[in-house]
Fold this sequence. Notes:
The complex is a heterodimer of chains A (568) and B (358). Chain A is of the alpha+beta class and 568 residues long. Chain A folds into two domains: 62-274, D-Maltodextrin-Binding Protein, domain 2, CATH 3.40.190; 315-530, Dipeptide-binding Protein, Domain 3 (Dipeptide-binding Protein, domain 3, Roll). Chain A has 18 helices and 18 strands. In chain A, the strands form five sheets. In chain A, strands 12-16-11-15-13-14 form a six-stranded mixed beta sheet. In chain A, strands 1-10-9-8 form a four-stranded mixed beta sheet, covered by helices on one side. In chain A, helix 10 packs antiparallel against helix 12 and helix 16 (488-499) runs antiparallel to helix 17. The longest helix of chain A is centred in the last third of the chain and has 18 residues, at 413-430. Chain B has a three-stranded antiparallel beta sheet, with no helix packed on it. Chain B is mostly helical and 358 residues long. In chain B, helix 4 runs parallel beside helix 12 and helix 6 (194-208) packs across helix 7 (224-250). Chain B is elongated and about 85 Å long.
Amino acid sequence: MEKTNIGNPLQRGGILRLIAMAAIAATLGVSIAGCSGCERRGAGEEFVAGYNTDVFTFAVSADPQTLDPGRMSGAPEGRIAFNIFEGLMAPGPTTEDLDDPTDVVVPGVAKSFDISDDGRTYTFHLRPDARWSNGDPVTARDFERSWKRVLTPDFPGDYVQLLWIIENGEEYSEGKLEDWSQVGVRSIDDQTLEVTLKQPTPYFPELVAFYTFYPVPVDVVEEHGTRWTRPENIVSNGAYKLTEYRPQRDMKLEKNEYYWDADNVVIETARARIIEDINAVVNAYRTGDLHYSGASLPVAQIAALMTHPDYTREPMLGTYYFRFNVSDEDSPLADPKVRRALSMAIDRRSLVEETMNNLYGIAEGYVPPMAMWESTADAPEYNPSRARELLAEAGFEDGEGFPRFDFLYNVDENHQLIAEALQAMWERNLGVRINLVNKEWRTYLQDVSTLNYDIARAGWIGDYNDPTTFLQKWETGDGNNNTGWSDAEYDDLMDQARAEPDPDRRLRHLQRAEEILMERGPIVPIYYYTNNILVSRHLEGFEPHNRDIHLLKYMRLADGSELNEATE
Amino acid sequence: MTRFILRRSIASVFVIFTIIIISLWITRLAPSNPCLEERQVQACTCVKMHDLDRPVFPLYSPPVLMPLDSCEYWQPDSEWVIIPFSFDFPIPGTDPLSVGPIHYMGISEWGNTQAAIYLRTLARGSLGDSMITDRTVLETLGAALPYTIQLGLQALLIALLIGIPAGLLAGLRQNTITDYSVMTVAMIGVSIPNFVLGPLLILLFSLHLGWFTAVGWYTWADSVLPSITLGLFYAAYVARLTRGGVLEVIRKDYIRTARAKGLSEQIVVMRHALKGALLPVVSYLGPAFAALLAGSVVVEEIFSLPGVGTHFVRSALNRDYNLVLGTIIMYSTLLVFLNLVVDILYTVLDPRVSYEDE
């Protein structure tokens, strides 16, 4: 008998369909966004945040890769860690309009600290009432053990190098030093921790408010291994504790009754909903499932959402720029004149105000504005005729003979818009033509880090409120330099700044370094990032923070009845 | 029959093994790797932790797992055997553009390759750890699979509940206005891709009417829109199959006989015609369910559901090799198994099909 056709042809069709769909899935965001434009009814009435929720609910953009503060990096992880753990210092409610710049951080587990005259030794005085979520006291010894753990050679932590600021921390971490007692961390008694640093570090108080410096319950970690952060095992010392985690769905944070400041923590329960697609976040906000959108909104939807009463914009400690690959000495891009010409041929104002819908801040320099810092360097002014002259001086009159370079960016609507605008400006002002090349994120990362590009877009978000988080990466051989740029004077200034105990003189070195970077560096800044978010207008205590750190313990929700009336 | 099942099972294992090997190769051929982050930090530690510094297969050419060339790479104890010619053939675990000279490892070292390590992990009944998160691949997929299966079943149910009555109606009223309208709707159903339908349903039922949430799966109600989105295409297809079945059966002699016996039209249809008419639909169920499981990727993305599809996409973007492989193994096992079941069901349903005398 004849063999039946068992391979159903439909099934093959199904797989083909799947492939086609996958290809089109990328345009998905656009299709949803397109529809949001259709309904331009008065804002406010159809957006009602908070209706369906009786607990404070916010979105995080992904499952946390880990909830181990010593190992983590990234926004979703931080969003949780800042709330369930606490360092010696804690992030303050805001970074804007500070009377005293050091208020970027406030006392956490430590109630105060002293600094030695040379600025290298910090003595932290811990509060005796600091407790883990199991009731045990948090001691100086906990900090020492936690930091030792992060500095263990081959520890798989993303931010291990932040702890290299501690004296001999780098040597211990690299396995060159085995004697822990030589590392500059010492718990003198339960409430006193003495830290000696490699160099004067004015931003150290902010560093200890960062999760890599948080204490972890080392005994619990040793007992459970990587599973110690599971809700059933985790012991933490923050205002909240993690009581539930459902992957791809949500995390539940409940107030930690042992927290030293628990009396002032108002929100009892919070739910972090894991929603990857930003368009889905907006939908969830619109249906009243979220109080706070978490991630920044998609550019395509901003125009429709800007009039929304819950729309909020906060400045970010970050700069959007593009970089030149200067590693090939024969390339025209290695010529500072050419770079300056290309820089002067772009109109930042129009890029930000028109191309970017005025969402961001025009970058006047490279280091974004922050307390404790006054930028003296200016990004080259828009001046097409001077740009043409410079290009001619470099041997490319009217762009004649100028190679057609690739402009590399990762797939993203924003980057696409900027790249197209740059392409047009360069062609119009200089007669220089470029190719636009967009690649998926990790491929882009690989190309950038292997210097397999000509010009590439980039962005940098600062890790702490100090210009060094922006300036360090341009030192010769820094792992994040990725341009091949090297300048002896620049390196020298950075070294001087590091050794300088006087804060004012230190800042002057850094200012000079930024000036050099703007004069002959491998980068052209375009805008300072902002965070465009939706936050329920019934949420109090949510203030702008330039590192997007918003602690639940500062917030409170207006009560439910008030909420419903107000959303009429 | 037993022999057939046995033979097919062995073939299935072979198919899945081949899929694993090819996937191992392809994941490593994709540019970049799971240890590359925007901030270059402990990359070497990450590479070592996941054995990415080893050759994937015994074939080898100098590692270009950039930009990690500053890391100390694993080296075999024995000498590399060098084939002194080059050919244009990408070698896994290296820069796909690099061309010879090709080294290969002495057989005593084969156990140290990434492939061998992965196969040993499989042999222990594990799918390894995720290279990005703190969870194992089994945990990750185990948490997600129930949602994908439930979504698939509900979509299938919707497909049958809508498709069969619609197909019956159209088939029994062939070439009438009813037939045309039902088939027009079915045609539209087949044509509308779910990445259009999903957002439209969200717009109407979530944002405007507020009947359902737009995002996530927390209560059963949250699965309604995704199931409809996923199921409607198949409903349309089932309708067309049913109609075809009815048209074929309704002209058969035994139906005429039944009518001649004076049975009511209702009994003729329900008791006699339906059974024959549904045969194509029943045989379509297996492939349909398999396609529903694999096809839920887009729907899961649209509605941000906690299913396997989301992992499938995300793990590939993250270069989470183990999770990519785990998902592939899971999908391929499901598909191979469902195909096997369908083939067996064929013999049960249709006595004309037999595998014994091949």
